[in-house]
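User: Can you help me understand a structure? I only have the sequence.
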Amino acid sequence: MPSATRFILKLLVLSSALILGCGGNDGRVKTRLTTANFDAIQNGMSKVQVIQILGRWREEIPDTAGKSAGASNALLHCRWKQDAAQIDITFDGDKVISKSATGLGESN
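Assistant: Let's start by predicting it. Here is the structure, written out as tokens:
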């Protein structure tokens, strides 16, 4: 068997093992969109702190009105979404100023 073919075969076997091994307990993706994680997010937290808890957001919606009343910077509205769970967090610059959620489950 040529070395290139052996390399490709090894790569396929390794890739398959990694894919099958990443399924978690019952094959479902473990969500970070839980009530416990939502409760851990507090006003004044930085974007980095929020990302450490929830991961990177899925949608970013800039403040269309520019600087909102009382905000020191243009607001950034971020959304995390998985299945029925959704978390929305608004940042003023780098700090959380509000949050909301729907459809959250318990930690899994």
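Now, to help you interpret it: The chain has two domains: 1-30, 31-108. The chain has a mean pLDDT of 78. Let me know which part you'd like to focus on.
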